[in-house]
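Subject: sequence -> structure tokens, single chain

Hey, anyone have a minute? Need the predicted structure for the following. Not urgent.
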Amino acid sequence: MSDAAVEPASVPMMGGQTTDVASLPVENHGLVIFGVMLASLLQILDTTIANVAIPHMQSALGATPESVTWVLTSYIIASAIATPLTGWLSDRIGGRQLFLISIATFIFSSVLCGLAQNLEQMVFFRILQGIFGAFMAPLSQSFMLDTTKPSRHATVMSIWSTGMMLGPVIGPFVGGWLTENWNWRFVFYINLPVGLIAFLILLTQLPDRKGPARKFDLFGFVWLSLALAALQLLLDRGNHIDWYDSGESWIYTGLAICAGWITAIHFKQSKNPLLNLELFKDRNFALATSFMIILGAILFSTLALIPPMMQNLLGYTVMGTGLVLMPRGLGSVVSTQVGGLLTRRGVDLRIVMGSGMLFTAVSLREMARWSLDVDATTIIVTSFVQGLGFGLVFIPINILAFSTLPPSQRTEASSIMNLFRGVGSSIGISVVTVALARNMQISHADIAGHITGQSGGSLIDVSSLDRLQSLGDAAMSMVNAEVTRQAAMVAYVDDYYLMFWATLIMVPLLIFLKPPSKPA
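Reply:
Had a minute. Here:
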């Protein structure tokens, strides 16, 4: 049976439309969707695929452990700064032209990254990659909505959401496989064949779309870029420079606050702002953006925590970690399709989204019960449930965000949502990283106090080991290593508890979302 056969006559409509006609009709809709998804998956994969290759890049590029992190930081900062430009550039040169230029430049810069001979070249090419990759996610989302009739928006958003969530999950696995079996440079070369296919499809199939020309808001762009760059530098480098024990962190914080304040006032008062803050007067869009910040924080925080936990504490290899976590992606695929079906059948999107958040909370609560003895089956099942939860949240949040906005504002709204999702993920990763380090120190001191014999309630008395000299030192080193391992696990569990409560706190806010209107 076709999808059309199971879709009811009363379906959610986007932007107040009363006719079931796409804003940009195309002849071969399936091929356009395939090309758009290839391009968006290409970009989202690159947010995580290079992470596992960092140690190999360090030796090849002659970088230090601290300086090589700029390979990741430069991409994140460039992407954050460029994302707000998407709406203005799309109106100025046309969405089709911007999309094609972005794909072509992204492919070219990826090849240059693979050819880089030193850190300076790599950072420059990653900046180029981040700038043009930033346009691809919001453009892909808006084009998928614009080329699809409103009654099928739930379907295409389920497809888009699947790609957005699969990318971060399979990125480390693909990157690890390419690095181990080929070379770290193929982490970037893989973009060439995939990108060329996407480019050729969209070159022949993508319709043109151009909005009203707007004057470029240079003042707003400069201050917004400064605020975003300072914030991203603080979040990314804070842990390396001991946060506010370093003057560098205070400089970043001051710049982020001052530049952010100036930007907000300018956008509010300007007649032609770079970003239209009037969009936040729409209740659904404002709430959906808030949800997206939390979703991005939890999604990327778990991706940042689980792999090192499995490799450093549980003894998994990079490939083994990727295989065990793969069911998370499978859960997302299943739930996005189920969520799309429920939406097409008229189920309240808030109920679908609430169910997803509860699934996510259950999985995080289970992770907070893990210990060093957790088995692979438990991790697989928990990851699958978490994938189910993310999938059920991601589709409704995108539909609700755009349900009360006119089509002309989709590209700018999409760029804002993607920007806030990226900022949310950076904040989330920084928060859990800080909490992990701090709780690890506290737990280490607490556990050590019960082992070294220095406290009256010690469980094991090792105070006489110093008599054994070198053997005693070796024994104490082994005891300390195990204490550190146990303390680390306690710290991971505390982080999972933190994300569990953050998810539950958001559930009551669902009642404030407005369900999409029905067709006339």
